[in-house]
């Protein structure tokens, strides 16, 4: 059962005073679901604006969760596969995406044969992975991609931080990559060096992105980078 259906069922089971008390919570739950679906669609639409299409392609979504990106890929007629470190997501994924193409993995080693995937996507995931593990995961992604296959992802932008942000208790440790913190920030220089020189990708596009639109380098505090790279 999808999250939207669960929200609807909860609403219809309420009556009178209970429905009034539950209404605000249900409305925000529905809004959250619709917002995430829109963000997933926007993420893929940016790639499409650069001439990247997903129809009839084998596409792996890394960190798929319950399948918000994967469902949008399926709507685009991709052969969409989801992988996630959280095995408990399998049943949610199956219900939401209406497919059983979910693979659990250990966070680094992908259970997929070499050179078998056309495109790898990942949104709102890589920023939570410590650097040394993320670099290894990128090497795994390189392994499973076909020649000229694409990696499309977003990741937190170091340049979005102002001097004042460093006064917030969790920001400076996160930038310094302390393991107990869950968000890691990257400069464009670091991303290019790691992806191109350390792993072997060719970075075609890297630009500031706010989740919905491409930003110029002069826009204020773009939250993340949108990156499109290919296997050479």
UniProtKB/TrEMBL annotation:
One Pfam family cited in the UniProt record for this chain: Methyltransf_11
Methyltransferase type domain span: 60-153
Molecular function in Gene Ontology: S-adenosylmethionine-dependent methyltransferase activity
InterPro entries per record: Methyltransf_11 (IPR013216), SAM-dependent_MTases_sf (IPR029063)
Listed Gene3D superfamilies: Vaccinia Virus protein VP39
Name the UniProt record assigns to this protein: Methyltransferase type 11 domain-containing protein
Organism in which the protein naturally occurs: marine sediment metagenome
């Amino acid at each position: 059962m999808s999250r939207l259906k669960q929200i609807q069922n909860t609403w219809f089971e309420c009556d009178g005073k209970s429905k009034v008390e539950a209404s605000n919570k249900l409305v925000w739950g529905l809004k959250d679901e619709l917002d995430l679906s829109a963000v997933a669609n926007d993420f893929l639409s940016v790639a499409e604006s650069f001439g990247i299409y997903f129809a009839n392609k084998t596409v792996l979504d890394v960190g798929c969760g319950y399948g918000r990106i994967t469902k949008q890929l399926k709507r685009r007629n991709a052969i969409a596969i989801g992988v996630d470190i959280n095995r408990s997501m399998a049943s949610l994924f199956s219900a939401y995406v209406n497919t059983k193409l979910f693979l659990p993995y250990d966070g680094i080693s992908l259970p997929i044969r070499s050179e078998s995937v056309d495109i790898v996507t990942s949104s709102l995931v890589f920023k939570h992975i410590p650097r040394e593990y993320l670099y290894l995961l990128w090497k795994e992604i390189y392994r499973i991609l076909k020649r000229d296959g694409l990696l499309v992802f977003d990741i937190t932008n170091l340049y979005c931080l102002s001097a004042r942000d460093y006064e917030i208790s969790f920001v400076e440790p996160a930038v310094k990559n302390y393991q107990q913190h869950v968000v890691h920030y990257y400069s464009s220089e670091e991303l290019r060096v790691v992806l191109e020189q350390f792993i072997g990708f060719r970075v075609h596009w890297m630009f500031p992105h706010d989740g919905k639109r491409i930003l110029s380098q002069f826009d204020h505090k773009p939250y993340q980078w949108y990156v499109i790279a290919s296997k050479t």
